[in-house]
Every structure is written in structure tokens, then in C-alpha cells.
Amino acid sequence: MNKILSSALGSLAVLLLVVAATAIDARAQCLLAQPSDQQVASANSPAANAKVTAVSPAMQGVLNALANLPEADTLVYVNPPRIFNEVIPRLMPPNEVEKMRQGFEEVKKQAGVDPSKLDYVVFAIRFQKPTADLNFQPPEFMVVSSGDFSAESLIELARIATKGKLRDEKYGDKTLSLITIDPVAKETEKYPILKSFAELGVVALDGNTLATGSPAYLRAAIDAAGGKERINTQVLNSLVRDPNAIFSVAGRPFNSFAKSFGMLGTEANARAPRCDWAMGDFYAALTMDQTNFMIRGVSNADNPDTAQILANLYTMLLRYATNEIKDASAQSLLKGLAITAEGDEVLLRADVPQQMVIDMIKQQMRPKMTDAKITAPPDEKPVVKKKRRSTRRRHTKPS
């Protein structure tokens, strides 16, 4: 009975979370004019309240480069310099770090790129409006990386690795190299929804910036590099709320949902959008100081009441997950998470001691002890005691 009740509560909690994450406010039914790109994020959104810390000239160059990206609904930013120069040396033994650096030297000799010399890596996802036949279209994706390497040389290496399967297409002043993924292309005959993944492309946006992903999205990146339809300022500001973060992610899930399911019109039929709504816009990042790794997240909740309701709901789900997980390390991490409401935002905070992470990594890297084989001693034949033959004395009768 307890197991059934526990399962039911878990299902109910998940259902409540889904409802809270996908419900659309009644205000979205009012008709308003389409907002401009600068007004997409509301004044109380996480992006608008972003507090950008002071950055180095090198980091400012990265931010300027990110401003040349095309429109995106979800962005993931990775900061390789901090990972390779600060995080890894603290988490790994010096001899392992040295081996890694030697490996990078070999990669540089073979491919002409040193992973530790990357300036940034960005994963971008862009959702699309439905087609004219009202079929859902999967999102487009793109990976953009920049650093101390030659983008053209890497494309030539890819050409060799694919045995000449890359085909070139001229777009604007760039050369877009495309390849068809044959197994996926074959499956599209049965599942047309896979068409977006049947072809990949790669392009050098400049001498040391490489973009890989969906061909249509790469064309948009080329246009953005030329000054057309660049990324929304508020979305970018949300991503780099702390530009020195090791890792950060920002997205607009409700806008993505509205776009994908025709609420903003289709490719063939434009539709004036309804009330713009920034609820659900989120930001999360991992950063560090001298002793802790710090997780910071924020999600827009539209108003203080909704923020408190969501914070209470998330806290309940977190408590449930903590009780269900039996691993002591995972429990410690979950107990360190704090979810609170502040104004019209839901905040996530956690400070994880670096030593705890180091201990967890050591525990995972420690070779597993195999059960020693217990060899049974050879069977000893039981010693058979010889029975003593007793001879009876014959007594003779006296004559």
C-alpha cells in the first residue's frame, strides 16, 4: 500500500510540474501588436534584470562575437579557458593534468587545434514555425566554436575524413560544406520528421570561428555575421548574466512552444502574436571561487504570487527526490540546493565545496575491488581407520 501511495504521489508531483511549466496565462488571450525585438523580454524577466560583472578585454571580445550569432531560443555557453586552466587543475592530480596537456599537444599536431586554447563554445537551438501542411518541424541546432585554430584547415580535415563526401555550396560570400547522413536520410522515407537531421553542414564564419549544424541555421549564421537578423539582445544578456561563468544556459520555453505549435502563425500564414509573455524564461550557470562551485539559476514567474507558488512546488519535488535517492553523495548535493522566490522570479542557489567534488571524482576513479576468488582446499580423503582384527582365543576343554 505504501509503495502504491508513494508512486501515486510521485506521478502527481510530476504532473503538477508539467502543468506549471506549460500552462498559458489568460492574459495571453488579449490581442496586442507584435512587440519589437528589443521588447520581447519583459521588464521583469531574468534577462532584463541581468547584472553583468566586469570582464576582461579578452572576455569582452567573446561577448562581441556572440552578438553576431543568429536568433536562438535556447543557448548553452561553455567557457573552455576557465575549465582547462582553473577547474581541471583543481579536480585532477598533477600527473593526470600533464597527461591531458600532452594529449592536447598530439591533437594539435594531428588536427591543428588545441582544445585548451578555445575561446568559447556555444550550442544554439532555434525552433521553427509549422509548415504549410501543419506538420510539426523539429528544431534546428548549431555549434559555434572559436579559438586558436584555422577554421578552413579543420574543414579540409573533415573533407579528408569523410572521403570527399562533403559538397560545397556558395552562400553569400561564404562556402557552406554539406554532407548527407545516409542512414538518417533512408529513415526519412518512413519518418519525414527526421528530415531536419538528414543533412549537416559546416562553415567558417571567419578565420578562427567554425559553425556546424543544420544547414538552414548555418545560412542564418552567415546572414547574422553580415548584420542581418542577429540574436535578440535580451536573450544574449540573459546567457551572459555572469560572463565569467564556467557554464551557462538560457532559454525561452514558452516562446519556443508558441512558435512550434502555430500560435505565432505558420510558414505560409502569418498571424499577429498575442500578448508577449516572458514567464518561463530562464538562466542557469555554474561558476566558482576559491573554495566552492556555485550554481545559480533564475526563472521568470510573471508576478510574486506565482513565483512563490512555483518555489513551493519545486521545493516539494526536490524534497521528494532527495528522499527517494539512496546515494549519500547525491543526497548531500540535493540538500545543498535552495529554491526561493524573490519578487517575480524563482531563484536557485547552491554552493558545493570543491573538496566534495574532488572526493566524488576520486571515488568514481578508484578501481573497483573484485571479489577475491576463494579457492577451496583440495578435498582430503578421509583417513580410514583400519579395524583391528580381533582373534578369539579358543579355549580347549581339558581332557
Total number of domains: 2
The tally of strands reads: 12
Average residue pLDDT = 76
Oligomer: single chain
List the helices and strands in order. Answer: HHEHHEEHEEHEEHHEHEEHHEEH
Share of residues in helices: 25-40%
Query: What ranges have pLDDT less than 50 throughout 5 or more consecutive residues?
Result: 1-52
Major sheet: arrangement of strands = 4-5-6-7-3-2-1-8-9-10-12-11
The number of distinct helices, counting runs of at least 4 residues, comes to 12
> Termini separation (Å)?
98 Å
Describe this structure in words.
This protein is of the alpha+beta class and 399 residues long. The chain folds into two domains: 54-286, no CATH class; 289-365. It has twelve helices and twelve strands. A twelve-stranded antiparallel sheet has the order 4-5-6-7-3-2-1-8-9-10-12-11, sandwiched between helices. It is globular.
Tag the structure with descriptive keywords:
399 residues, alpha+beta, 12 helices
How would you briefly describe this protein structure?
The protein has 399 residues and is α+β, with helices and mostly antiparallel strands.
